[in-house]
Amino acid sequence: MRVISIPHDLDVYQGYPESSLFKLDPLPTYLTLSRNLSEIIEEQKQQKDVPPEARIPDFTIHGLAAIRSYGDYHDDTNFPDYATPLVNLPQIDPEKLKFLRRLDKESDCEGHWNFVVEYESREWLLKAYYDDSTVEEGEWFERFDAERNAYTHFKQYKHAVGAVPACEGWVELSMDHIASFRDNPMCRIDTERDPVDFPLVGILIEFFPDAQELSKDNITFALAENAMRGICGIHGCYVLQNDIEDRNCLVVSGDRVVWVDFDVSRTPISGGSRDEGAIPRVYFWIEFNTAWELFYQKEIPK
Fold it and tell me: At the top level of its lineage, which domain of life is listed (predicted)?
């Protein structure tokens, strides 16, 4: 079970995700770290005179069960300010896409392919989902629908601008379109498959050709802070990323950090890809702390 560390302020929990932690004045101590978290906590254990307001939280909880001590907050699924998005992602005419190349297989996951395409004189990433025998029946479309739903929320609430790829819309490819790029040597489909048997739907998102995963090799405190600001923005759009891993956090230019891969994300209206029910408010706080632990306790060098 993952261990997460959280500060002792229930008011902060209850106001999240509507209230961004980065709008608090002053910023909480745990958002202004300048050294590895584990190192600071260890020092604090040796010090008896650290005032409470300056102490980095070392309160750890194991899983959801322990949060039940916070009473109704654990089971709260009410988001008074939430409204189902009124905007829709536009459906793009596939005739306007020019397929340029397929990315390396390492970038592909079960149930989808990644293509670089040209649309309106600009390169985009087409994340195309297909019916894959290696995933559960219907899961490929549920993943596409989760991703489309997430970007619809980003468009509606606008708190994650710059922290997630820009999304131009979604596309449905007919069998004729699939056949037309099947023989394109730069868009080659797995030769063990016959792509004309698979319908394809996809999301057209911003393409970052020189992106790197945020990792121990390149992380800085500025990048860690921007990643945390990004996850706050994502949560402000009522989207639970639901897969907090460094592979899903990219450094794209300078200090800009972008979160990607929302095909298992959840929102208050989605309930999850497998009908997991409503999202308790505490899940957003737990995910924030999961990201916080990843960057400040695991990635940043001691």
Answer: Eukaryota
